[in-house]
Amino acid sequence: MFAHGLLWLYDHSADRCRVAAEFIHAQIPGGPLKIRRSLAAAVFLATAAAPLAAGTAPAFADTVPAGQEQTDPAGTTADEENRAAIERLLVYPNDYLLTAPSNYLREHAAAALAGTPADRARFLASEVDRIRRDDARIAILQIMNVGGPAVKKAGNAAFPTDDLDVYRAFLNVGQYTARAEDENRAEAQRLLDDPGSGLGVREGAEKALAGTAADVEHFLKVELGSLREVDDRVLLMQILSRGGPAVHKAASKAMSGTIEDVRAFLKTGQYIARAEDENRAEAQRIIDDPATGRHVREAAQKALAGSAADVEHFLKVELEPLRASDDRIRVSQLIEAGGPEVRKAGTAALDGAVEDVRAFLKEGQFTARAKDKAAEQAAAEAAGANAGSTPAGGAVVPASVTTATTAGSTTVTSTPVVTTGTRGAGGSLAATGSTVPLGPLGAAAGAAVVLGAGAVVASRRRPQA
């Protein structure tokens, strides 16, 4: 039994020598003398084992011939196993490392593989455990740095423990559980902040966020679907209550269908129906506008009596050409009833584009009408000025002569007549015309003849008297 213990000590490294005394004491019967002799043997064996731990074979000159090296088959086998163990460490994943091999670990492993058997033994005995702990801590810190509140909380709980099992649990499971909680809470918060979320969804999200991770998960996976359906139906009813005829019709149909029908209405149907209501309202406004022409009004009435497509076609395709036609008709009417300037400007507009026509209707007609009115006023003022003035060199003649016979007597009343004249170069009078109408002129001339005849008769009768 003692020889077996010696062989066991010899076959193992110096790290095992610390239990030599306990082993010898247990295996060798006898008194203190025998124990002291056994301790001396243990010291000798420890001295022999130290070179093995350092990676070199002890040299026993009294047993090995000169020039022949000592070999240790057991040490060679152990080193080969250490080399294989180091190489396996670099193949990840494995059961020993908590994370993929870091550059630091790879550098030290490469140094051990290139070194002595003692370097490899030391690397496996102490260095690799320290490095894997450091790598685990670094990985935890990196995860915490980019993680959310739950990840940071779990990482802070694991980091200071220096417990490999705790590190492994966080890196393999805990970080993902915490990350899922952070993602769930972020989604619940997004729903709470979304203006498109209904009242039921917002209240459910707010309540879940005030609870545990399990509450948030239950809200998202179980409650959210039913709450959304209720909110969607409530929203549909709100749209129906304030919509036009087409919206009311489409919403009522969706409400009596499935939740997919409701959501299809909310996504697209409501906008199609709203466009129809807006188009019909626009067509009705055109009809009610007093400025709308006859052709446009007739086409709008026809479209309103048809489908939504008819109304849309009228507004997008027919309306502008019909408006252009009605605008040209209106210009023609203004030309027919207007003065010279209106006729001139209106004709020029008709010869141009539709923009010219509309510019005339908007402003041009009023400018031309003002010019016509100004010309009429100028003519009237000129006529009044000529009628109220007395030209130089004129003679005043009684304007009218009224002859009345009463009991054998005759009364003559005359109206002054203005005649003007100047001597021409030949000595004759140059007639410049009169501003007095021909009727009064004729009456005045007749009166003058009567007066002259009366004067002749009177002069002839005086001598006889």
Describe the structure.
This protein has 465 residues and is mainly alpha-helical. Among the domains are: 2-53, no CATH class; 81-146, no CATH class; 338-381, no CATH class. Helix content is 72%, strand content 4%. It has 17 helices and six strands. The protein has helices at 2-11, 20-27, 32-53, 73-89, 103-114, 117-146, 149-158, 164-193, 199-209, 213-242, 245-255, 259-288, 294-304, 308-337, 340-350, 354-387, 438-464, and strands spanning 395-398, 404-406, 409-411, 416-419, 421-423, 429-431. The strands form three sheets. The chain has a two-stranded antiparallel sheet. Strands 2-3 form a two-stranded antiparallel sheet. Strands 5-6 form a two-stranded antiparallel sheet. Strand 2 and strand 3 form a beta hairpin. The longest helix has 34 residues, at 354-387. The chain is elongated and about 150 Å long. The N and C termini lie far apart (211 Å). Residues 1-70 and 394-465 have low confidence and may be disordered. InterPro entries: DUF312_ALF. Keywords: Membrane, Transmembrane, Transmembrane helix. Pfam families: ALF. The chain crosses the membrane at residues 438-458.
